[in-house]
Amino acid sequence: MRGMDTQDFDAIVIGAGMAGATTAAHLAATHKVALLEAEESAGYHSTGRSAALWIGNYGGPDARALTLASRAFFENPWPGFASAPLLAPRPVINLAPESQRAHLEAMIAEGTGIEPIAVSEVATMVPALRPGYAVAASIERDAFEIDVASLHQGFLNVLRKSGGVLALRNRAGRIERRNGAWEAETSSGAVFRAPKIVDAAGAWGDEVAAIAGVGRIGLQPKRRTALIVDPGQYDCTQWPLLGDADHTWYVRAEARRKLMVSPADETDMNPHDVQPDELDIAIAVERMQEALDIPVTRIEHRWAGLRSFTPDRSLAIGPDAAAPGFFWMVGQGGFGIQTSPAAGALIASLVRGDDPGPLAPVVPMVDPNRFRRSRA
Ligand SMILES: Cc1cc2nc3c(=O)[nH]c(=O)nc-3n(C[C@H](O)[C@H](O)[C@H](O)COP(=O)(O)OP(=O)(O)OC[C@H]3O[C@@H](n4cnc5c(N)ncnc54)[C@H](O)[C@@H]3O)c2cc1C
After folding, report:
1. CATH, domain range 6-69+148-218+312-374
2. Distance (Å, rounded) from C-alpha 319 to C-alpha 323?
3. Separation of 339 CA from ligand 1 center, angstroms?
4. Closest residue by Cα to residue 335 from 69, 44, 1, 63
5. How many A from CA of 3 to the centre of ligand 1?
6. Which CATH architecture has domain 91-142+220-309?
7. Which residues have any ligand 1 atom within 6 Å of their CB?
8. How do the domains of the chain map onto residue ranges?
9. Could you report the per-residue pLDDT of 208-265, keeping only the tens digit for each?
10. Can you give the pLDDT at residue 4?
């Protein structure tokens, strides 16, 4: 029986990180949407902890296609969406010590718009580069930093303006299909009811599916660490994003002339409010210092976030063939921000049953049912 506080919607979206926010915004024109978020603020988990980059050559074919398809939205978002540009140029430079030379050459050959650049030229751009660290380097000029907060708020504003509901502090704890509709009862005691439900719960994607009685797809959250240091005498504001070809460390200019450093770690974790590990912090500093002559006297800030991958590291976007009205929007890994505009458009078209248009080639790549054979 329906409780007194049951609210009816056209679609329920679980999780108000970037995946849930873009889903809700793209559905809002045609659906009355309830966006449920367990935490006090939207974006508390992975979305608020990213490196905020748009790199066309990052990830597998599905991530690259969604990233490229998102470019137009980033450059020309919906009217009134954001008050400042969402992208700012930030070229990517990869450095290769001798042992990584072959990998760098393969990256240049395989990538689009990745060119060789003389190490001496990199040293002019980044005077902290230690002579002798790299024997070769590449540059991807067409890369950007994303204003993640504006993007995320922009999507949430579209939801609100369309009459949708963002329900913070509402962890969905019971999810059931009854009489042709999904019911989600949350930690606040409210019950949300809709014929369609989208699982955009990030690291908790499998957990939410299990609560709903839907087979897991085998999502694996992996911890990634970041820290902020003061680069001392160097003004790093115009430095490119800099890392090694094997992706064992990278640095990125931050606000206030600070430098973000990451050891590009991927440690398997259960979903939780993940915190950095001291060893990963030490590894990040050591690897960065092999390449850059930057003394580190103090770590100014540190954090970690979860990057959640499906078993084949491609995204999972679309309907679950075994659960009517249940849709997946998970497995965003390390590219959930840069793919979000196109991924949102894709899941919305699949929920509506519309033709996904130019995104049609991506549909089989991200079909969540590809894991069905391995499901329990
Ligand atoms: C250090 C780091 C660097 C990164 N760099 C980049 C980058 O440069 N570019 C890029 O594109 N991506 C990057 N990423 C990846 C990106 O941050 C993620 O892919 C993206 O944020 C995932 O968004 P999400 O909405 O799926 O997850 P989240 O932001 O974690 O949102 C999921 C939400 O679901 C909520 N939830 C879970 N269970 C329930 C429930 N039962 N009921 C209600 N709510 C629930 C959670 O509270 C959470 O808020 C990086 C990640 C990290 C950690």
Report:
1. 3.50.50.60
2. 8
3. 12
4. 63
5. 32
6. 2-Layer Sandwich (3.30)
7. 14-20, 36-39, 44-47, 49-53, 171-172, 200-204, 208, 224, 226, 305, 307, 332-338
8. 6-69+148-218+312-374, 91-142+220-309
9. 999 999 999 999 999 999 999 999 999 999 999 999 999 999 999 998 899 999 999 9
10. 58
